[in-house]
Amino acid sequence: MRLLTTIAALRCYLTKRCSQNQLAVLEGLVLDEMTSWYQTAVGLIPTMGGLHQGHLSLIERARQENSTVIVSIFVNPLQFAPNEDFERYPRTLEQDRQLCEQAGVDAIFAPTPEEMGVAEKSIKESQVTQVIPPSAMISGLCGRSRLGHFQGVATIVTKLLNLVQPDRAYFGQKDGQQLAVIRRLVADLNLPVDIVACPTLREPSGLALSSRNQYLTAKEKEQAAVLYRGLQQAEAAFKAGVRDRSKLIVVVQQEVAMVSSVSVEYIELIDPTTLMYLKQVEGEGMLAIAARLGSTRLIDNIILRDRQPIIAIDGPAGAGKSTVARQVAAELGLVYLDTGAMYRAVTWLVLQQGIAIDDECAIAELANQCKIELTPSQDLQSPVRVWINDTDVTQAIRTTEVTSQVSAIAAQSAVRQALVKQQQSWGKRGGLVAEGRDIGSHVFPDAEIKIFLTASVSERAHRRQQDFQKLGQPQVSLEQLEQDIAERDRKDSTRKVSPLQKAADAIEIQSDGLSVSEVATQIIDYYQQRLSQW
Predict the structure, then answer these.
(1) Which of 52, 55, 149, 442 is catalytic?
(2) Global pTM exceeds 0.70
């Protein structure tokens, strides 16, 4: 791992790293169907140091999705007001370096304020060119008491994104206002980076992890946990049917009031994307709180979603994910998110318009402009009707011509990015059953129900042999099939980027000796059980 403190060294490192990754691809060292999207990707985790388990969870996510992971450590003077804790903010570079090395970070970028071109003074006194987000997004919540804070954040984050030029940048959901502001910044400035939100990690008491927690005594940490308890009480009320802003806020206030040493700054219900105030939750809302305990300022939030659940089914190749997902969707009346059909639909459109398969620019434009719709069907063999640009292509996408070209189209990163974006947009409405190798960990990390469906190598080999027989294909010995599946598992589980792994909040179903209906029944029972708890 490299520790870089100058922009010149950072640029040199990134240039060499890019060349090494491209050479590895050319030599076929990491090129395969599942990782072609990620094999040269760079992930950035911007931090102010004082790293804790929350930061490490961002690093872990970035490690799974990129070939190069950069952590920036910079205590940004522009985001501190004159009366805030800039001087005493935790600076633990050596400890942070050790944590990053253990977590598999490739490089740390830890510049001085002078190297970043900002003097050690607040944004109001600075002469640096500033990035100013929309006033409506930064005037409320934390912006009311931290004047200039979000201009300072936006200015330095923009500089970091420009210097590193990552494919993805990772931020925690705990800083919900900051997350929304940065997403808007990236959209408005057309920056070519995906902003990835990661769940808030908490201490056993429920207190959200934060670098500022080290200011708190053990007793104060216990007291501070009341913030999350208040949010949890409001979540319980929401699940019981309460949607009104004032009623949800009162629930939090009543809980927090039980700890007199906590001074509430605000409790608000807002749209998590626009930060506009909500009178009631209709689709999605963020209930946010800020409070002081002694001299320490703490923030927290919880997302309230009024949608049908998403069922995400991950697992190794040959575990029967697709067949099970179709049956679960049909029995629950949910939409089966047939991602393969989406790639086929784009392929069909490419062929219809006479675009060359290797014209990636034209295909990228088409994939980002087309409108795909999936609607449920009662036919288990074809459980989803597929529409692209208002044309029903359910049957047309199953032709030999489309089948022969879909792999080449699916391997193009712009197509994958465009379709994942559509999938995530549908996910906001919920009511989906989706399957894949990283559906629960990457596409729908906030899925309410996550299943890791697996089976032994011998069981999967036996199933595959039966499939070959049904299709009239040449026979392959069980021994050869077992070797092939074991090797695929090894590659999927040990690949550097996006490895096959069970999500921490997924339940595992071992399907040896079980029929498709029996597996589907287990998932449906779990779904009903979780639904009753909501």
Answers:
(1) 55
(2) yes
